[in-house]
Amino acid sequence: MAEVTLIEAVTQALAYEMRQDPSVVVLGEDVGVNGGVFRATAGLHAKFGSERVLDTPLDETTIAGLSVGMAFQGMKPVAEAQFDGFIYPMMDHIVCHAARMRTRTRGRLSCPMVLRAPWGGGIRAPEHHSEAPEALFAHIPGLRVVIPSSPARAYGLLLASIRDPDPVIFFEPKRIYRQYKEEVPDDGEALPLDVCFVLRDGTDITLVTWGAHVKETLEAADRLAAQGISAEVIDVATVKPIDFDTIQESVKKTGRCVIVHEAARTGGIGAEIAANLAEKSLFDLLAPIERVTGYDVPIPLFRLEMKYLPSVDRILAAAQRTLAYR
């Protein structure tokens, strides 16, 4: 069993599904001959040819429209936006057509497409290259939004996303594309969508997060453990629809909750989770819910970028405030 990075796990999943299903095609800017800006599609053009790995013009609107049309005709397109900040021209086709087609046709048609995009900050890229827009897409009925946090989850969740009969937005946290490796069997086993993953059991506090910040949250849990505090860590993974049952069960056990995400605070997924807990778990809570998030400003360039993103120290401070509440 090979040890692979997250980006290699993405490539592995794409290759596996293309071997198994001839209706799967990959398209985007430079995904073919060059293998993509982050090399996520490296080698696929040589293996499957230009009819299944399509280099498109530098035109995100065309990529999205072509993908929707392919999906309506029985294909399974996996489109790539080079960066999360370049995804906005695609929203017209995604929101007005991909997300609505099953309802519009009363179930006669669906739109089995995946839109992949490198997501989030942490690589000191220019403006529009470091955004975390998951809440924009999670607000749209008919879309599924998935964010893996490890090589194994990237592999299994991407396979499940490609096999899903409806459109999936698949955000890949680029900060951890090559940060570490883990063993990922190339066996075609998908992981379930729409469920949270409990990465660490705990009894004193629940830490909820997704994407690249799973790493910092687990580090915070380790530091809390050194203080004798037992933290449960939950990776949401599918941020639309959210598996609220797992989060509620955890909070019922711990009574305290900190939610961590790198997107801007206002209107973020963390607010939705907090609202659900206020509605369904109010009498289980022993303290106010804390959120550790990005700020309500465009992500700053270069030197200030890591100051914008939640740190282990910020997570610990929120946890300590929650634990101190009486």
Give structural notes.
The chain is of the alpha/beta class and 326 residues long. It folds into 2 domains: 3-183, Thiamin diphosphate (ThDP)-binding fold, Pyr/PP domains (Rossmann fold, 3-Layer(aba) Sandwich); 197-324, 3-Layer(aba) Sandwich (Rossmann fold). It is 36% helix and 19% strand. It contains 12 helices and 14 strands. α8 links the parallel β10 (205-209) and β11. The relative contact order is 0.12.
Notable traits:
14 strands, Rossmann fold, 326 residues, 36% helix, oxidoreductase activity, alpha/beta, seven-stranded mixed sheet, THDP-binding, five-stranded mixed sheet
Produce the secondary structure layout:
Elements: E1 3-4, H1 6-20, E2 24-28, H2 44-48, E3 53-55, H3 60-72, E4 76-80, H4 91-98, H5 101-104, E5 114-119, H6 134-138, E6 144-146, H7 151-163, E7 168-173, E8 182-183, E9 197-200, E10 205-209, H8 213-226, E11 231-235, E12 238-240, H9 244-254, E13 257-264, H10 269-280, E14 290-294, H11 305-308, H12 312-324
Parallel strand pairs: 2-3, 2-4, 4-5, 5-7, 6-7, 10-11, 10-13, 13-14
Antiparallel strand pairs: 1-8, 6-12, 9-11
The name CATH uses for the topology of the largest domain is Rossmann fold
What's the arrangement of strands in the largest beta sheet?
3-2-4-5-7-6-12
C-alpha end-to-end distance: 49 Å
Stretches with pLDDT under 50, minimum 5 residues: none
Number of strands: 14
Shape: globular
Which class best fits the helix and strand makeup?
alpha/beta
Q: Compute the average pLDDT.
A: 96
Oligomer state equals single chain
The CATH superfamily of the largest domain bears the name Thiamin diphosphate (ThDP)-binding fold, Pyr/PP domains
Q: Can you name the CATH architecture of the largest domain?
A: 3-Layer(aba) Sandwich
Major sheet characteristics = 7 strands, mixed
- Structural Rg: 20 Å
Number of self-contained structural domains? 2
Domain Transketolase-like pyrimidine-binding: 4-179
Keywords: Oxidoreductase, Thiamine pyrophosphate
Cofactor: thiamine diphosphate
GO molecular function, one term: oxidoreductase activity
